[in-house]
Amino acid sequence: MRTSNSYARPLGAVFTPLRWAKWLVREFGLAQKWMRGATVCDPTAGEGVFIHALMDVIVEMDIAVDDQMLSRLFVIERETAFLQAFHASFRLKYSREFPRENSLCADVVLRNPGIKFDVLLGNPPWANFNDLPAPYKETLKSAFLEFGLVEDPQSLLLGRARVDFSALVVSVVLNRNLAPHGEAIFFLPLSLFLNDGAHSGFRRYSLNDSTFQLAELWDFKQTRIFPDIATRFGVARFQRDAQTQFPIPYRIETTNGWISRMAAPVGEPSAPLSVFDSQAEYAELTRPVAIEVRENQKPRQGVNTCGANRVFIFDSLPEGLPGEFLFPLITSECFRNGDTSPRRHVLLPYDTTTGKPLTETALCHHPALWTYLLAHRDELLARKGTMLNTWLKRGLWWALLGVGDYSFAPFKVVWEAYGKDTFNPRVFSAHNGKPWQANQAMHAFIPCATRAEAERLLDQLASSRIERYLRSMSMEGTCNWAQPGRIKRFLKFVKSGDSPACELPLFAS
After folding, report:
1. Alpha helix locations (H) across 103-257?
2. Segments forming the whole domain that contains residue 375
3. What is the CATH number for 170?
């Protein structure tokens, strides 16, 4: 396995412990399949721990590995040093040579050898596309596009795609290195299957003219196989030339061993997987429902200062700045005990009608505000981010993200989206005539035109079914708990001129 947190070594190489490589070999019966004639390959072999695991398990079964069996083992690795280390350790441990012709030095994405095997196994590199070294990232863009792994090609070209490199590696080797009806078993980050947005392309399980069944998932919730890795991980088994049939078997590690559950997407087939305790729960939570909202009521995250909280956020109303640009900022206290007194305020130098940053000409009509911003000009220009750069290049260096006409809606239904384990939306109207503002990814909201509309939406969002859906994704306490994409799955957008069907009881208990 390679991860993005250690680029001192090639692509952050971090290797699978031998005991867990042997666990995978035993659990999926790979030694027996190899013994019965299957060709087996680790396409991102590193120092070859999975080949060692196969050899060790066979030896423990008291089976002699002859030259014919050995000829059916293969490794592919892009780093020559790793291959050299593998050959040396194989020779030392087993007193024989690993077949040189079965040891391929190649980048499986950029220079794939095109050889197909009955079984693939291993631990592909884990790294977010954005974290890859810049030159390598440039060479990979066409491959991400070829395999349909990004919904928005522009985001990839601009360098802000969040797709994991492991999704690309797996897509390539399943397509180019797995024989018809072959199977592949990999340690993988569970974000490929459980997180919104970035990996929906991967979850089509269809590449070029091939289909791949996601046959089962194993969720390691207890054991830290990789001590330096905070990412949730598991094992996925794929079968070539078969369609994924939901729900799939989903096994969860507990202190008392593995328990069996089932998993399936809620909504579109490429949606992230939810985990269900029973067939009845699966049938209920996957039943189609929709809350009707207008097309301009897309769920949003809150105001994002892009690292300039010191400039834009205040613990009390600052003296000297025009009050028309200062807005109450939602904090955690607002969701506790009905507290509606703002403890913080945020400065938004915006036109509240259009939701766009004020022009320099407009700012000059507010000398105190313009003077304050100029005093922080260097700090605001130093902020980073692809989306923010769009504003900076236009000379609007005082702009923020997450601000639009929706920010100034008279009513908002807001919920805590980050690090929680309950879904507790509430209606915010205004404080002293100023609309409340949600705070970055901590909160998400849907803008509303009237209190009646907001109350109707609150009733439907507060359904216990939504919270049960969120819990089915096992994201309690994480940054992904109830972000806008998850709630959007329950919404049906109608044209802005139409009225949502308020009277429909869309979320029966």
Report:
1. 134-146, 153-157, 165-176, 191-194
2. 300-494
3. 3.40.50.150
